[in-house]
Write a structure and sequence with these properties.
With 271 residues, the protein is an alpha/beta fold. The protein has a single domain, classed as Vaccinia Virus protein VP39 (Rossmann fold, 3-Layer(aba) Sandwich), CATH 3.40.50. The protein contains 11 helices and 11 strands. The strands form 2 sheets. The protein has a 7-stranded mixed sheet with strand order 6-5-4-7-8-11-10, with helices on both faces. The protein has a 4-stranded antiparallel sheet with strand order 1-2-3-9, with no helix packed on it. The longest helix has 17 residues. The chain starts with 14 loop residues before the first strand and ends with a strand. The model has no long low-confidence stretch (mean pLDDT 95).
Length: 271
């Protein structure tokens, strides 16, 4: 049996085995209920994990072809920008925006119409794509390694990133440091506490180690943010709410949001 590392959400040291997948053991924290990869992530070669195959369809377990879907992903970015700039709690209409885990830079490419943008991306391959193909200011490495100025950004985004991070609370703490007081931080991640995720269990499509290291729920995501010095503003539902064609159709996705039943959570914070 794997000797589990401390819980990445609450730092608890007592956990029990939940299930195994892709050769990794996932444990459930007895203190907060967070589910996480028990093995030490220091054993994972992240540069190899997030190379060209990850973004171009070379691995069946992840993106079909992230780069090839640029038009659709940029359209999705425009919808996100409209949502957060017009509906409460609204983002500032102008200012500085930081996208952490910006991948190939498609969200940044749309956001620069309104903001002075900066990206941070661990993957050498995708950060180079963002710089060379889209001309975006993207730092290769972790947010901590970027050493950005304190209280500098009006908006910080982490789209489907926090579940990939070995130590999410230190990352969020660094994000809090570089966020202006009263600024907005928003993230998305899978919602392990959703009815759909629980019904699928180990077969849930977002239970995907070694890419996804932590399966958060609303309570554990809010707890991690609070430990990092952030104040929760809101939480909403995205993703799918069930199996079958209907739930993956636009109408089903909208209904899942309205019923607050999707398997992805979108949480906003400030400091």
């Amino acid at each position: 049996m794997t000797q589990a590392r401390p819980c990445p959400a609450c730092d608890g040291h007592e956990s029990t085995p939940a299930f195994a997948r892709n050769g990794f053991d996932l444990h459930r924290c007895q203190r907060c209920g967070c589910v996480f990869v028990a093995q030490d992530p220091a054993t994972i070669d992240f540069q190899a994990l997030y190379g060209a195959d990850y973004y171009t369809g070379g691995h069946d377990a992840v993106f079909s072809d992230y780069v090839g879907q640029e038009a659709a992903r940029r359209a999705q970015a425009r919808r996100k920008l409209w949502l957060h700039r017009h509906l409460p709690p609204r983002w500032p209409r102008r200012g500085r925006l930081l996208d952490v885990g910006c991948a190939a830079g498609f969200f940044l490419a749309e956001a620069k119409a309104f903001y002075e943008v900066q990206g941070v991306e661990l993957s050498a391959w995708s950060s180079a794509h963002a710089r060379d193909r889209l001309g975006l200011p993207v730092f290769t490495g972790t947010l901590q390694q970027a050493a950005l100025p304190a209280a500098h950004f009006d908006v910080i985004t982490l789209w489907d990133v926090i579940e990939h991070v070995p130590d999410p609370v230190p990352l969020l703490a660094e994000a809090a440091r570089v966020l202006k007081p009263g600024g907005r931080l928003v993230l998305t991640t899978g919602d392990w506490d959703s009815a759909y995720a629980r019904s699928k269990g180990a077969d849930w499509h977002l239970a995907a180690p070694p890419w996804h290291l932590t399966l958060f729920g609303r309570r554990t995501m809010a707890l991690a943010g609070e430990r990092a010095g952030l104040k929760r503003l809101h939480c909403a539902s995205e993703g799918v709410a069930g199996d079958g064609r209907f739930w993956r159709h636009r109408a089903g996705l909208l209904l899942g949001r309205l019923l607050d039943r999707g398997d992805i959570l979108r949480m906003g914070f400030t400091r």
